[in-house]
Protein: CRISPR-associated endonuclease Cas1
Amino acid sequence: MSYLYVSEQGASIGISENRFQVKYKDGLIKSVPAEPMEVISVFGKVQITTQCMEECLKRGVDILFYSINGAYYGRLISTSHVNVQRQRKQAEIGKNEDFKLTFSKKIIDAKIRNQIVILRRYARNKNVEIERSVIEMQNMYKKLLIAESVEQIMGYEGTAAKIYFRTLGALIEPEFKFSGRSRRPPMDPFNSMISLGYSIMMNELYGKIEAKGLNPYFGLMHKDREKHPTLASDLIEEWRAVLIDSTALSMLNGHELLVDDFYSGIEQPGVFLEKEGFKKYIQKLEGKFRAESKYLSYVDYSVSFRRALDLQIGQLVKAIETENANEYRPILIR
Structure:
């Protein structure tokens, strides 16, 4: 499948002869086949023709709208994916406390273990002692075994996350000083990158959840919030460190991005990627989604991370339909 990202301000997207065409202000035209297209993401002031939107609705191509800095606005989607019976089953399973408890333990256990792997990977080339942090995080996932409520589980997750981000601060190159998680707005380059990455990934999961006939707003672990796709929030947890944090760390520590690739907002506070840095990051992230691995325990062949996202949601569908949370097996990296 194909994904199209358009962030050039003033560009326009149309369709002609079974190809999506992106026209830039300088007259340059980029043309890509329509057949494999799955998602078009636009950032900022990008125009889309009515004919293009109609074709996307017919083909089931989602169009995602973001601000120039990556804040999510909304999406254009068709209704061909709706599966009423599956959503009724999903709504019922949301009342099953045992299912939600087991599912939440699996997700958060995987999240903490994957965070530990990332810390160890990036500590190898640094003269930084992380074992105390690792032990503290291991204590958190061990406590999951005796947790009696989802609220307890989220408490352990929150403690582990604080330790994780505190330790990451010593592993990121000094010029990109990082002293902890800041969201709205992001106050340093690393936060800027992961906030954008989480937003992109959240909305990719949203589309994949809908494509499987589930409702993105019927969550199992996080508390429901108005206008928030809670199920996507649940499913992103095991992937944050695996895909987004690792990509940001790789680019900063590998000097693929420089301090000059970021700017501080004037009209709005925060730190954001400059135009070229933004493009580099999107390209790197897309490359990560396409990279193949054998991390899924239930398949014995390599799949791209994007395909793995699909397979994981398929596992959740199976778990919901059988009312057995143990059918869901999160990704664990090594």
In short: The chain has a mean pLDDT of 91. The chain has two domains: 2-76, 84-327. The domain at 2-76 is CATH 3.100.10.20 (Ribosomal Protein L15; Chain: K; domain 2). The radius of gyration is 20 Å.
